[in-house]
Specification:
This is Sterol desaturase. Keywords: Membrane, Transmembrane, Transmembrane helix. The chain crosses the membrane at residues 40-67, 159-180. This protein has 14 helices and no strands. It is an all-alpha fold and 287 residues long. The chain has 2 domains: 1-16 and 30-191, no CATH class; 193-263, no CATH class. The protein starts with 7 loop residues before the first helix and ends in an 8-residue tail after the last helix.
Length: 287
């Protein structure tokens, strides 16, 4: 019998949620386009076959070149202080993700050098916001969780942090932390909005408790508004810890209804070609 690895839990959850979306009719009538399905297949395959292995090899090479004495250095410390190290890992990984994500959505910097760097981040993140077509019928789907430009994996600081932690010997921390964060991020992309039930509950204490929790953790409707077409698409940048959106990035938005329209407007090439979405490299169009 094959061993079930922790990371397989994320795949199982995504498959389960995907089947539920299909059976519940959440992908019909333009809510999810053929290009959305194909992008999920393409980016999922690229992540498993190319991007993740490339980052593992790159961090191992750089670590071995610059700090070979650090390889496995924190293994015993992590084993003796697992839960504290795990909490620190999740907090730091989420902070780095939020910072990179914030930069991709931030206003254009004055520095020409920073403008070029930001162009890479905007290009890398743009496919994540393309869902459905330009008709406004598109909806968010769990398969959008891992849809990005091929470049995104190589420029986001949290991915480098993850695999450098593995180099330091925090393998179990990496696995548990990545599974937990992966499950939470995936659940925020599923086409459901259970948090609205609590935010609009007839009992005031339920509404206020949920409203308070939305300042600490990111719930589905919060992230759905990040995928909206409009002012809220620059909000709720963190997949897990909304406290960073609240206290650090000033990007917390708590709405009490679903977005009216999902997905950014697409160019003709983006609307009809997954290869253009995944490989486009023309930074001038993002200037």
């Amino acid at each position: 019998m094959p061993e079930i690895k922790p990371e397989h839990l994320v795949i199982v959850f995504i498959l389960f949620a995907m089947v539920w979306e299909v059976l519940a009719g959440r992908t019909r009538d333009g809510r999810k386009s053929r290009e959305d399905w194909n992008m999920a297949l393409l980016t999922g395959a690229a992540m498993v076959i190319v991007q993740r292995p490339a980052l593992v090899l790159a961090t191992a090479f750089i670590g071995g070149l610059l700090v070979p004495q650090w390889q496995g250095a924190l293994n015993e410390f992590a084993a003796a202080n697992f839960w504290w190290v795990l909490l620190a890992y999740i907090a730091l990984e989420e902070l780095l993700h939020g910072a990179g994500h914030w930069f991709a959505h931030a206003r254009r910097p004055k520095s020409k050098t920073l403008q070029r760097v930001q162009g890479l981040f905007k290009m890398g993140h743009r496919p994540h916001h393309l869902s459905g077509g330009n008709d406004g019928k598109g909806q968010l789907s769990v398969t959008q969780t891992f849809v990005e430009h091929w470049l995104w994996w190589f420029i986001m600081p949290n991915y480098w942090f993850q695999f450098f932690c593995v180099y330091l010997g925090l393998t179990e921390v990496f696995l548990v932390g990545t599974v937990f964060k992966g499950l939470w991020a995936a659940h925020n992309h599923v086409n459901w909005n259970y948090d609205l039930y609590f935010l609009n509950h007839r009992w005031a204490w339920v509404r206020k408790t949920m409203y308070g929790l939305c300042h600490i953790l990111t719930f589905p409707t919060q992230h759905h508004h990040h995928h909206a077409r409009g002012k809220n698409s620059g909000s709720n940048l963190c997949n897990l810890l909304a406290i960073y959106d609240w206290l650090l990035f000033d990007s917390l938005v708590i709405e009490k209804e679903k977005p009216k329209v999902y997905g950014w407007k697409q160019s003709p090439e983006e609307e009809h070609s997954i290869w253009h979405r995944f490989f486009a490299t023309d930074l001038k169009k993002l200037a």
